[in-house]
Amino acid sequence: MRIVLIGPPGAGKGTQARFLAERLSIPVISTGDLFRAHVAEGTTLGRRAREYMDTGALVPDEVTTAMTTSRLAEKDTSSGFILDGFPRTVRQAELLHQALVEQGTALDQVLAFHVPDDQIIRRLASRRICGDCRLTQRTDPADSGEENACQACGGSLQRRDDDREETVRKRLALYTEQTAPLLDWYASRWLLTRVTATGLIEEVTRRVFAAVLPSTVI
């Protein structure tokens, strides 16, 4: 299956993408991971992307599309994939559609995650990433010292710059302006399924699986 996940930052797309990928045995392609890999490697695309990522702005369509379509050409996507974070604009969706047509394939489904803005801000205020094992987890923002150690390896937890409240609000405004129109674009093509992404992770997982694999019980 070829699936796209759409939703505001902090909606839980990455978590649900991993669960779905394990069940379907297909890779998750995250533009966030692609961006960070290119930035770490110092590629031309990575340097261009970082200028926008550091301010919470959307990376230009041509940069994001170049990274993503290159990844889609790899062999492990032959049975399908889950795109997390791409497309983010109607133009990117059009470019993705063209690329898939050239490969003789098409999307099967688009899942749109919905979470109110105030919950997004609270979620991201508590999100941390381990500097050692890179596991993402949530903490109490007021915690410090040992209480902020990684639950998996004990490493030091770090806060991403784009999780700070002022940057999150900017990202949400950009999502409303530039990404939300994708919902109508995909709905008009009978690909869109809306998913309420509030509540416990397990509850959201059940909704996601019911949307993609309606006969599956978890």
From TrEMBL:
Keywords linked to the UniProt accession: ATP-binding, Cytoplasm, Kinase, Nucleotide biosynthesis, Nucleotide-binding, Transferase
Enzyme class: transferase
Binding site residues for AMP: T31, R36, A57, L58, V59, G85, F86, P87, R88, Q92, R160, R171
Region (LID): 126-163
MF annotations from Gene Ontology: AMP kinase activity
Localization per record: Cytoplasm
Keyword Cytoplasm: yes
Leader peptide range in chain numbering: none
Region of interest called NMP, as start-end residue ranges on this chain: 30-59
Chief localization: cytoplasm
Annotated pathway: Purine metabolism; AMP biosynthesis via salvage pathway; AMP from ADP: step 1/1
Entry annotated with the keyword Transcription: no
One of the Pfam families matching this protein, by short name: ADK
Binding site for ATP: G10, A11, G12, K13, G14, T15, R127, G199
Record field: catalytic activity: AMP + ATP = 2 ADP
Gene3D superfamilies: P-loop containing nucleotide triphosphate hydrolases
UniProt EC number: 2.7.4.3
Database matches in HAMAP family: Adenylate_kinase_Adk
Family label: Belongs to the adenylate kinase family.
Function as written in the Swiss-Prot or TrEMBL entry: Catalyzes the reversible transfer of the terminal phosphate group between ATP and AMP. Plays an important role in cellular energy homeostasis and in adenine nucleotide metabolism.
Known partners and oligomeric status: Monomer.
Protein's name in the database: Adenylate kinase
